[in-house]
Design a protein that fits this description.
mainly alpha; 12 helices; elongated
């Protein structure tokens, strides 16, 4: 067991240390904003500072965790790394199941339900967005995104790619707060859930020889390149 943990640490976490350091800083920042105040300052700031540009921007960002975004990510992974696609698909599925179970058990009210009872705050919803009232905790979109996008790190070439992957994940989390669908608390916990699920799935699959062999191979593009080389020879 310890050997597998060491292998995961050396081959995945250390090479992607920029991502994980950034993730820790993101979690600390959100925690600071949420727990050191008596109100959700991020949610209320967005509610009071909406613009047409950011309305469209965050609606689009939120779709990364929906059908359109998921299909694009899966296609990229299939083209570049079959093993990453398998882990990503399993991780997003497990993250969705776990968050839905927690949502059903807790059934916490969402921002609209809570703030509609606070008369000193004018609620400014984003036009065209259907805002839900219950099953707030944790954010399914956020957990799914972190669980899914983590495996893009397996095809990343440099730290710019790694930071971009983290940025996209955080963008989805922030979009859920901006769209008045979740509290900062919801996306904070969901981010951690998503990362832990992805790492757990990766760790478990290190125990299978067929996966280790598959992980050495590229996706469709790699196969096409290899076939071209064979024909050239």
């Amino acid at each position: 067991m310890k050997e597998k943990f060491k292998y995961l640490y050396k081959t995945f976490i250390i090479p992607n240390n920029y991502y994980f350091i950034g993730f820790i800083l993101y979690i600390i920042s959100l925690s600071f904003m949420y727990f050191l105040n008596n109100k959700d300052i991020l949610l209320e700031f967005f509610n009071n500072h909406r613009t047409h540009f950011f309305n469209i921007f965050f609606i689009a960002a939120s779709k990364i965790a929906e059908e359109e975004g998921i299909i694009i990510v899966f296609i990229i992974l299939i083209f570049f790394r079959f093993s990453a696609f398998i882990l990503s698909a399993l991780s997003i599925s497990l993250a969705t199941i776990i968050t839905n179970i927690i949502k059903t058990i807790t059934d916490f009210p969402r921002p609209l339900e809570v703030y509609s009872k606070i008369h000193d705050l004018t609620i400014n919803l984003v036009p065209g967005v259907e805002v839900h009232r219950f099953m707030s905790f944790p954010s399914g979109h956020t957990a799914a995104t972190f669980a899914m996008l983590l495996f893009l790190l397996k095809i990343s070439k440099n730290n710019y790619h790694r930071i971009s992957i983290l940025f996209l994940s955080i963008l989805v989390a922030i979009s859920r707060v901006y769209l008045f669908q979740h509290f900062t608390r919801d996306v904070l916990v969901a981010s951690i859930i998503g990362i832990l699920i992805a790492l757990l799935i990766m760790y478990l699959f290190l125990h299978f020889r067929w996966y280790l062999e598959l992980d050495k191979k590229n996706g469709i593009i790699g196969i096409l390149i290899d076939n071209k080389k064979d024909k050239t020879i």
